[in-house]
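agent> fetching stored inputs for the NAP docking request
agent> found them:
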Amino acid sequence: MSAARRTSIGIVGARGYVGGELVRLIAGHPRLEIAFVSSRSTAGQEVAAHVKGAPAGLKFSSLDAPEAAASSADVIILALPNGEAHRYVAAIDASDRPDRVIVDVSADYRFDDNWVYGQPERFRDRIRGARRISNPGCYATAAQLAIAPMLDALDGPATVFGVSGYSGAGATPSDKNNPEILRDNLLPYALTGHIHEREVARHVGWPVHFLPHVAPFFRGITVTVSLPLTHTITTEEMQQRYERAYGGEPLIRLTAKPPLVRDIADRHEVSIGGWAASDKPLRAAVIATIDNLLKGAATQAIQNVNLACGLNELEGIAHG
Ligand SMILES: NC(=O)c1ccc[n+]([C@@H]2O[C@H](COP(=O)([O-])OP(=O)(O)OC[C@H]3O[C@@H](n4cnc5c(N)ncnc54)[C@H](OP(=O)(O)O)[C@@H]3O)[C@@H](O)[C@H]2O)c1
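agent> prediction call returned; pasting tokens
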């Protein structure tokens, strides 16, 4: 009996931090294989020279949008900076296989009703069999999972204080990943109007105030969320709400102790907990930690590919 054919994946933007995690995950996935890994700046070079764990012999190529669309890939994952996905999507739409799965990890389609928002723990049924999937943002994944179980008890905007490791700013040099600026430091930025503020508000259906910062560590995000309440809720009742919402979710860990960002690095899960509630003033607090490059990007993309292609959602994601 022959083994089932593997689903082939093309990655555009494969030199980046998210692209590297995708290469590693797909290389270890029993039902997926790499069709191409595209990067303009490293074309022709061995992927393993840039990405630890990449298959030997695999090389970067530089595919423009029509070339990516003409490839044999069954699924194309776009891991490009914001604003760059459209021409690849347009080329795939116009190709002879327009019904291929596209997963876009940028923010370009997170506000587009024609695309499915790929947050499996909240919208799993919509993702199964979908062909156009926008992968949620890293902060946005942590924040919405932290807020969602409390939505019916909120009396005003949720305030999300976020701190990210500098890999959140990508591999291209900027102030937000400059070691000199970050050394012994915490860098506030985009304190109003961050795209993840709008993303979380849209996908939980409730206003959010988001205050992001970058820290000198490489990977991991912590969001500390303050929730104004309509009525008294005890800390125990709060914990029960999260257990009801996420008790069966393999990629969500619940913890009464505040989760620490250091403990989530290199892990596929989101950790949520450290619940605290008071009645004077009427408010509650909850913390979520996430590895921005894994559950905040690549792991979630693989969950989405698995769901879209009818595979087990956690196939190729070694967790626990
Ligand atoms: N970093 C995170 O924690 C994180 C988390 C969730 C989502 N995301 C999102 O994921 C996407 C990728 O993030 P990243 O951190 O991996 O970024 P990155 O490290 O800066 O990598 C960007 C990739 O895109 C390629 N690229 C850049 N401009 C391009 C263009 N105009 N046309 C074609 N390719 C281009 C780059 O390679 P070449 O220049 O060699 O072509 C590189 O491979 C972004 O949209 C980001 O917002 C990132």
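agent> quick read of the result: The mean pLDDT is 97.
agent> awaiting further instructions
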